[in-house]
Amino acid sequence: VFSNVVPFGSWLAYYYDNTSLKGLPKKSKVIAPTGQFGKLSEDNGTGSPASGIPVDNFSAKYTTAKRITAGNYILRTKADDGVRVYLDGKLILDRWNEGAHAGEAIQMSVWDRNDVPANEKDIHLIEVQYREASATSSVDVFLEPYEDAISTSTTWIAEFFPNEQYSGNPIVMGGNNGYSLITSLNYNWAQESPHPSIPVDNFSARFTRKINIAETGTYVFEANADDGVRVTVDGQTLIDSLASTSDRLRKNAIYLQKGSYSVVVEYKEILRNAWINLEHKKISDNKIYYQFNGDVHYNWGIGQPNSDLPADNFTGLFESSRQFAKGDYFIQSFADDGVRVKVDDQTIIDRLTSFSTKIDRALWLNAPAGTHSITTEYQEISNNAGVFTDVVPFGSWLAYYYDNKTLNGLPKAAKVISSANKLTENFGTASPAQGIPADQFSAKYSTAKRLPAGSYIIRTSSDDGVRVSVDGNLVVDRWSSGVQNQESIQVQINDKDGSNVHWIDVEYFEETGPAEVNVEILPYIGPIKTYNSTNYNYTFNEMVDKQMAYGSPKSDGAGLIPAERFEVEYYANPTNFSKDTVSYLQFLKLSDSAGLNVNEINTKILANKGTLTREGQAFVDAGKLYSINEVYLIAHALHETGNGSSTLASGMSQWKTCSDGKIVKDSSGNPVITDIAPEKVYNMYGIGAYDANPNDCGAQFAYSQGWFNPSAAIKGGAQFVSVNYIQVGQNTLYKMKWNPAKPATHQYATHVSWALSQTKRIDNIYKLLDNYSMSFDEPKFLEQPPASELLNLYPSGVIGVTTEAVNFRSEPIIDSSTLISTIPKGTKLQLIGYASGWYQVKVGDKEGWLYATYVDPLNLLQISVSGTLHVRQGPGTTYEVAGDLYNGYYVSGFLDSNNQLIKDDATKKWYKINYKGSEAWIHSDYAIEK
């Protein structure tokens, strides 16, 4: 029998001569509590705890009753060997294994008892069970109020939970009265566990400590963790990042007065590696604006970042830690007022001065791959406040957006646009960024690039205005409103101070409607041309013979004037058209797409071209669908439709029914009318538009094909040309006109210069392009003659006069691109020569071409003689011979005041002519007035 009366707090000890507390104890005693918390402490060394108890393989039970105020406590134990602790009969700690332990602790809550009288509710029974296996024997157990564990700033107290929810009784380490102190929070468990009772993954921890702030100021708290972390200072959340993230480092700053503060760090480990580190340091004596990571894009205007700071005379610190790929970068800041930027603590921008809206730049070349710190120090002095800092890879674009059209002040928003080469932004009718209107805004884009010295093409398209500068030099200046205005210019870029790094700046403004800007800089390579030829096994004369006999060649575009043989010989002879001339484009292979840009077609080529306006997509689609060069399609359509304004291009609702080129008539002989109003048909290539009835027959053909809108006519006509010509081997303009494989058959047009007339427009379109490829196929005939001149040159002094107002052209081709001006009726001009229905003339000091129908020669004489004609020094055969003329030669006669040819007064049979710069005479029987 054992009976003891024990004071509250003292420990009643029972000892057993076995390790399992079996049977009655062999001995008992009362052990006085020790220390502030009434600790149970017994250290037997290698001896026995009491007589009759062995030095090894025994057990003991220690019991006490004490008043414990409800609250949070830390149960601390240290035993060699096993120990178990119960509170009011409930097992709290169970570590019943062998071995000496440095000490364990768990956090627990003590609640008042409810089933006892009120004066006993805070009385609790604590039982400690202990077992000794061998060697030394000791046991320490005490209950410490949680607040006491963190009452000083010498150590952290750590609580580890075997789950991610911070639930249950945690394992505790550290604290003021811990068996080991945690003087700094710096753990790296890698892929291990912090404690045997805690899993390797999916656990949580809480670290608490008092810190003493010796000096008032702004302090940065830096937490580096894998995975989540939350930091609070006196209950104020400073870092809140408990979710798993690739951003291991987190920072934030707080302004603290001198004094003591409670810091709580909550940590969560989810998977794989586990570590946690926390440090703090003072960064300023004053309150400052602080940010870690995130964009440095701020425009506070005349305000302040927050209510804790003044509108003027404040500072800001923006820190970031980021992964960077190896490469070249540029760093740009835009601040009002001062700014300093550091990379890995190396200052690269240093301008902590008062300055209104100034951009500062620096290069960060050959940056090594890895984590780098970027720090921006900002100083606001007065008036407006704002700061922007960005680190941008070479080739990407830094964009600033303004809420005005003039790039005035600091931007309201900014972003980095990733791009290898081209700047492309298409906002439609929306806003480009928060705080920016959909209209009446502007933007500035900047990039740095490595560009080897040489020639480059800068292409821009925008809605509305755009300017481009290279190394501060303005190269594109189109600062005006306009839908999809485009520019393409060639610039020379040279190395600067031996460096191939260059700055490209683009300024843009949006007026109203859709907003879009595109800028591209490309090395100028120039066109790549491939020349091929096809040999035909018959003579050139045989080819011309067939054309004259069966091809119905015409000298005019209306198909009314039969061509002479010399005209066919000239236009059908490939030798007459040399490489690298516009005329050589008739040998361009048309079976490949040119790869044109739709916007470029619409703005540069088809703007204000009637029904062809903004039909660029139809031409591009047609080129892809039917394997046909869209440059040719556009040139062909512009030529056939008179720049989209012809009757067939404008659309026809009513026409005379046509069949095989003839108008169909009813029994009374009247034309049969087809009327589809209000619908219209369109024909963009003149397909089926027979010369005798082009509009009626062209409309009839379009109707049969279902071409009820311009797009359908463009695509349908392209299909017709591709199927009937390109795909059957007639894949050049020359082949379409002359069909050398089967001459005088299946020819697209009768006009002898049809192929040549297409080349000017094709050339004009290609001039808008910079880098492209061309493949040519030139025909070769047997006994092909050398190059010849189509133009019949006249001698000097030949005068003509216009019979009607007539268009003066740069080339003998009817096209808007050849028009110089319109010459009024009755204008005198010099005739230089004649070619295929055209006069080459000189008007003032400018040479050009006039259609021969509208010009009368006044003094042109052609010699008609079987042998030679003597030129006399006077009007008669008695005068000496001045020289000889031959059949077909041209001479100019002298005119009187009435523009009549001068003849001799006596016989009126002799013309006064200009012969080798002198006056001479020829008999009128041998001269024809032209």
UniProtKB/TrEMBL annotation:
SUPFAM superfamilies given in the database record: Anthrax protective antigen (SSF56988)
Start and end residues of each SH3b domain: 794-859
Domain PA14 per the UniProt entry, residue ranges: 6-159, 151-321, 392-535
GO molecular function, one term: amidase activity
Highest taxon of the lineage: Bacteria
Listed PANTHER family: FAMILY PROTEIN, PUTATIVE-RELATED (PTHR34408), GLYCOSYL HYDROLASE FAMILY 19 DOMAIN-CONTAINING PROTEIN HI_1415 (PTHR34408:SF1)
Record-given protein name: SH3 domain-containing protein
Species whose genome carries this gene: Aquibacillus halophilus
Lineage: Bacteria, Bacillati, Bacillota, Bacilli, Bacillales
